[in-house]
Amino acid sequence: MSSSASLSAAPSHPPRALGAGLLIVILVVAFESAAVGTMMPRVATELRGLGLYGWASSAFMLANLLGAIVAGLLTDRRGAAWGAGLGLGLFGIGLGLLALAPTMPLIVAARVVEGLGVGGLAALPFVVIPAAYAGQAQARMLAAVSSMWLVPGLIGPPLASAVAEAWSWRVVFGGLAGLLVLAAPLCLLPLRTLPRSSAPKSSKRILWPALALLLAAAALIEGLRRPDALGAALTVAGLVGVVIAMRPLFPAGLWTLRPGLPSALAVRGFIAFAQMGLGPFMTLALRRLHDLSLRDAGWIISIGGIAWTTGAWLQAQLEKKYGPGSRLARIRGGAAVLTAGLVLAALGVLGPLPVWAAYLGWLVAGTGMGVAYNSNSLWAMSHVSTEERGQLSGQWANIEVLMVALSAGIGGALVARLPLTQALTLAFGMCILASLVPWAAARRLESGPGGA
Fold first, then answer.
1. Is the peptide bond before 324 cis (omega within 30 degrees of 0)?
2. At 14, is the secondary structure helix, strand, or coil?
3. How many Cα atoms are found within 13 Å in the side-chain-facing hemisphere of 410?
4. Any idea which of 88-97, 176-185, 203-212, 331-340 has the lowest mean pLDDT?
5. DSSP 276
6. How far apart (Å, rounded) are the C-alpha atoms in residues 436 and 335?
C-alpha cells in the first residue's frame, strides 16, 4: 500500500534492537490473530453478542485497508518511525480496549482500532528490511519474519485457550498489549535513523476511493444484518457504493473475469472469500454445534496454518520441478482441492460425517489454497512490469481485504438473522460456491497476456 519500499542504501550494521523489536511486533500481531480466532466464540457468547459476531472480523479487515494507506502516507512524509508509531499505538490501544470491553458493540469498536493499527504494521517489514539490511541479511530477516507467523499459528490457539480456561479471555488480550508495550521502543527508536522514501507517493491518490469503499462495504454488511426497511436501504446503497468505489482501485473486468490481471485478482479474491472468510465460523460451529472446548475448537486454526505452509511448500516444489508453465494447472488443481476440502469440512461440521472430518477437510482446503494462492501470485507478478508491481501489490491487498470482510460480514448477517445451524449451512454453501470461481477464472488466464 505504501510506496516506501524504495529507500536508499541499507547501513552495513543495522541496530540489533531493530531486528528484535520488529520480530516481536510481528509475533504479537500473529498471536493476536490466532487468539481472536480461538476466543471470539466465547467472547460473543459471554457478552450475548452473537448477532455482531461477523462484524468482529469484518470491522477489523475494513479498518485494515484504511490503516495501511494512512500509515503509508505518514511514512512517506515523515519517515518509517512515524508510520510504525501510529500503527503500534493504535494496535496497542485496540488490544487494551478488547481486554476491557464490557459489551459486544465495544468489542467491534476495539477491532476497528486494532485493524487500523495492524493495517499500518502490515507493510513494516517491507519498509524496514530493504532500508536497514543488505545482501544475505535481507533474506535472513524475511525468513525470520515468516517464521514469526508460523509459530503462533501452531501454538497460539492452545496457548490462548489454556490462558482463557485458567483465568479469562481478557487476560489473553491484556497480556499481548503488555508485550507490545515492551517491544515498541525496540522497534521505534532505531527506525528514527532510517532515510525517508524517495519513491513517488501513490497512497494519497487512493485514499478517498479506499475510504469510500470501506464505508460502502460497511453499509452493505450492516444492511444485510438488519431485517428492517433501513437494512434494505443500506444494502442497496452499500452495493451501489462498492461498485462505484472499486472502479479507481481495480482494473476493469474484475467481476466479468476479463482475461489477464482482472482474472488473477478474481482468483485471489474468491479464494480469500471462500477459505479465509469462513475461518471465524469454523471455530464458532465447533463450539456451538459440537460443544467442543476452546482448545479442541482452536486446533482448527493451527491446522489451517499447517495446511497453508504445506501448500506453499508443495507449490514451490512443483514450480521447481515443472517450471512456470505449470502455474495455470496448479491454480486450477489447487482450487479444486480447496472446494473438495470445504465440502468435506462442511459435512464434518453439519453432518452426516463425524466431526473429525471437519479437521481433515480444513487441512485439505488449506493445502489447496496454499497451492493455488501462491501459484496465482507468481503468475500475476510475471505478467506485470517492474514499474507496475507496486500497484499490483496494492490491488492484491485490497481485493483480499474486501472479499474477506464481505464473506465474514455476510456470514455474520446470516448468524444474526437465522437459527445457527441454518445460518452456518448457508455460510458453508456460499463459500463452497465462491470456491468454484477461481477455477473458472484460472481458465480465463490462459487467454490473457502470456497465457499458456
1. no
2. coil
3. 21
4. 203-212
5. I
6. 7
Q: Residue 445 has which C-alpha cell?
A: 488466464
Joined together, the cell numbers standing for residue 376 give 496465482
169, with CB counted inside 10 A (0-12, 13-18, 19+), is buried
Neighbours of 135 (CB within 10 A): 9
- CB distance 36 to 91 below 8 Å: no
Q: Is the pLDDT of residue 92 over 60?
A: yes
What is the chain's mean pLDDT, rounded? 85
Q: Per-residue b/e over 205-234, b at no fewer than 16 CB within 10 Å?
A: ebeebbebbbbbbbbbbbbbbbeeeebeeb
pLDDT tens digits, 291-327: 998 889 989 988 988 898 888 889 888 888 888 888 8
Interval 196-219: pLDDT, tens = 554 445 556 777 888 899 999 999
Contact 66, 401 (CB under 8 A): no
192, 82 contact by CB (below 8 A): no
Contact (Cβ atoms closer than 8 angstroms) between residue 439 and residue 335 = yes
Range list of H helices, 3-52: 16-46
Residue 52: closest CA among 64, 40, 37: 40
Place of cell 484504511: 66
Residue with cell 528514527: 192
Structure letter (DSSP) for residue 227: -
Nearest by Cα to 132 from 12, 46, 47: 12
Q: Give pLDDT tens digits for 22-52.
A: 888 888 888 888 899 889 999 999 999 999 9
